[in-house]
Amino acid sequence: MKTSRFFVACALGASLLTGLLLPLNGHAQSNGISKVRISTSMGDIEAELYADKAPRTVANFLQYVKDKHYDGTLFHRVISSFIVQGGGYDAKYQQKPTRAPIEHEGRKALAAGLKNTTGTLAMARTGDPHSASSQFFINVVDNAFLDPTPIPDGDPVAKFEYQGRVYENVARSQLVNAPQLFGYTVFGKVTSGMDVVQKIRNTPTGAGGPFPSDVPKTPVLIQSVTLLK
């Protein structure tokens, strides 16, 4: 099935394949942290990736880096009050082929301290929590509503609060598997080049390619993504 556009949900009021753990190809890591440079047509962005906190997600991203998948792709979705998103479409707005999607590990990353705060990198996906492949986004504001929802201990869960409502004695599996509670997996953070992110964030947008809105009027190209260490 062809996906027209991977996305992060904009609506705040949403209602109620396991990925292969890929090798890091011999590149050394320091304390589970890799560093990459995202070279764009507006300048360079450097980021740390936290394999100790989101191992499958980082391994997946680094495999796409090794494969040069990101070279020549666009930041095709830019919302100044939300995110900048890319990694899935070439300069002609053609969707690039990807490997199988990876297992969502947002709760593990959240428990390790990774939240959707300004400057963090997270995986884009469809409504299926386990659909992330190559597309990623950079949060340009704090987007706490994108964080996974922690599930309290117990089975059944004695008390669970969500969007102002209280649920009692809910089967744990019902909560663990509820799509709207998965959130989005954070796996890295910008360490330099936030000024470039701000330029991308503030670029004028409109319709472009197959998309009716949020596309930079002057294309913002990811020229390359390079593993620094």
Brief summary:
With 229 residues, this protein is of the alpha+beta class.
Determine the number of helices (DSSP H or I, runs of at least 4 residues): 4
The biggest beta sheet reads: 8 strands, antiparallel, barrel
- SSE order, one letter for each helix or strand: EEHEEHEEEEHEHEEE
Mean pLDDT across the residues is: 89
The coarse overall form would be globular
What class do helices, strands and sheet pairing give?
A: alpha+beta
> What does the radius of gyration come to?
18 Å
Strand proportion: 25-35%
* CATH architecture term of the largest domain: Beta Barrel
CATH C-level label of the largest domain: Mainly Beta
| Residue windows where pLDDT falls under 50 for at least 5 positions | 1-6, 8-30
N-end to C-end Cα span: 36 Å
User: What do we call the CATH topology of the largest domain?
Assistant: Cyclophilin
Give the name of the CATH superfamily of the largest domain.
Cyclophilin-like
Physical arrangement of strands within the biggest beta sheet = 1-2-9-5-6-4-3-12
* Total count of domains: 2
Q: How many E strands?
A: 12
Q: Helix coverage percent of residues?
A: 10-25%
What would you note in describing this structure?
This protein has 229 residues and is of the alpha+beta class. The chain has 2 domains: 33-148 and 183-227, Cyclophilin-like (Cyclophilin, Beta Barrel); 149-180, no CATH class. It contains 4 helices and 12 strands; from the N terminus they run ββαββαββββαβαβββ. It has helices at 55-66, 106-111, 172-176, 194-201, and strands at 33-40, 43-50, 73-79, 83-90, 120-123, 136-139, 157-162, 165-170, 186-192, 205-208, 211-216, 221-227. The chain has an 8-stranded antiparallel barrel with strand order 1-2-9-5-6-4-3-12. A two-stranded antiparallel ribbon has the order 7-8. A two-stranded antiparallel sheet has the order 10-11. A hairpin with a 2-residue loop joins β10 and β11. The N and C termini lie far apart (36 Å).
